[in-house]
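#struct-help
A.M.: can someone run this one for me? Single chain, 472 residues.
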Amino acid sequence: MSIRHSGRRLRAATLWSPPACLHHSAQTSKVTVDWPRSCRAVASTPTAEKVLFPGALNSEFTDSLEFLRPGANKAIPTYRVLNQYGEVLDKEIGVDTSDEEALALYRNMVCLSIMDLLMFEAQRQGRLSFYMVSAGEEGISIGSASALSPTDVVFCQYRESGVYLQRGFTLADFMNQLFANTQDCGLGRNMPVHYGSSALHIHTISSTLATQLPHTAGAAYALKLQNLHNPATPPRVAVCYFGEGAASEGDFHAALNIAATRQVPALFICRNNGYAISTPTSDQYRGDGIASRGAGYGIATLRVDGNDIFAVRRATKEARRLALADGGKPVLIEMMAYRVGHHSTSDDSFAYRQRVEVEDWKRRDNPITRLRKWLEGRDLWDEDKEKELRGRTRKEVLAAFERAEKLKKPSIRNAFVDVYEELTQEQRMHVEELRDLLRRYPKEYDMDQYEGGVGALDELLAEGQQAKNIPT
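D.P.: on it. Structure tokens below:
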């Protein structure tokens, strides 16, 4: 049954919506925010019972001096479909996912976890310079990506390899980027794990924290205009992934505010995994997680169990529908998880948390084992299938790894092209200086590993000179 046609679908996870100036219909009052542009404050009358100041429309007057104390209110509930034993909580509603889809999702999660394990080991061997794992968060990235349209525009942080995998990024694509070889679509210009794909509508990852948030708000505003002027084309949303640590940056607040005031079709998906590198959430904020901030900005908000891939999928589907309703509006989803792995290969998380804490989460609950329990409960999976899948996937990852490792690095010319249409005079000076330096110290700079070697710079200079001599 579709979420869209069931009034009961999210009854356990009603999206938190701020009050609006107009009355809502009974069918949409829990999940939509009609934020009319026509609301205007007027002077208060002697008999008025509500505030008419422009800054707090629809607030009732009171003669009781009572501060709003967050600790006195219940925490925002966390929506889930499966319990930690893989059992469906509401059997009448089910999971909204076919058996074939569930198996495909499980295979992708296992593939992601195996790739993470092997690449982490490769970095420790010195074969990769850097890597970041997604252990404990596979359900968030793969589950949410599976509920989006392939044409939706996505902005990731740096722990969303599952989003790429689910949208069609191949093992070869991952390995080529990690090695920055000649097949890397980024031409070796980014550090490992900073993937990007124009074909999959995913913007290239940036190391700078939270910059993707305002980018998403701006892209969503552009999509709003496109959706408005191209009604025959299926509408799109902009989707932003970020960690709870990024929510401490000013970009987070600026992005949510502009998205709310402009009413843009944007999904802000927060991975709250408990740690911002070495900083636990107890030192990051005192409020009720990140979800509580959504309501403050006038944004429909939901908190979801990130270890439950079915809850993630259903929530994302409904959030996308809401984001496109009535011309567009932003939605915030806080996905709760636990970061099982280290922050990156540059981090030792046992310096700031107990090993027993991590092992307890691995044993007690994680998205892969929870989905596997559900599959086994339906006789769709067993130990033999598990061994076959893991053995085959490991071979596929290692094969892609070995092929990518043997390829040369991209041409050194890529350090200069694609900035201006033609080389500027200053760029030519830089190219000439680098070329002379590389030729003067060949033992210090091994150019054989780069496609075209030093000769690629000669070709670049010749092309620039030829273009300069072409008559206009």
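A.M.: thanks! Residues 99-124 form the longest helix (26 residues).
D.P.: also worth noting: The chain has three domains: 17-74, 99-406, 412-469.
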